Please model this.
Amino acid sequence: MYLETYSMEELMELIEEKGYCSVEAVEILKEMEQAKKEYDFLLRDCEEKAWKTDQVVVDYYRHLLEELRKSLPYDAMGGQYTIPILVLQEFRKPDIVEKIRDFIGCQAGFSDHALLQEIQKFMTVHLDPQGIILYMDVLGNQPAARNVYKQGGQMW
Model:
């Protein structure tokens, strides 16, 4: 539940404080790996459409990408970087929950809190470039953690 609760900056601070070998770092890594798999599956345009928070957030993300691609030139002059930044900025706006609710056209039984948690997780795992840095940083330090553990040291 780290990804849904903490912002990227808070996650980075937590790992800095606790260390890469901590229980928290391992749990964050597991959550990120699982969430990446789930979002990758949803982004491949799977046939099963279920009104779950993750599907709604991914559908809105696709909608934003299409709208931006229609209105902005997508060329070798930076469009591939501009569009993701604009989408991330859109997801960080305070009225994102209302925008997603308007997009889906119904309440679908989601609480604002549940939708906000899913948005936070999606931004951390899929949209925020720092998310990739954090993921690779934690993943890159896992061999060091395993070496400490193999040599008889305390892993956490």
Notes: The longest helix spans residues 129-150. Residues 152-156 have pLDDT under 50 and may be disordered. Helices lie at 2-5, 8-18, 23-43, 53-71, 79-91, 96-104, 112-127, 129-150. The CA atoms of residues 101 and 107 lie 6 Å apart.
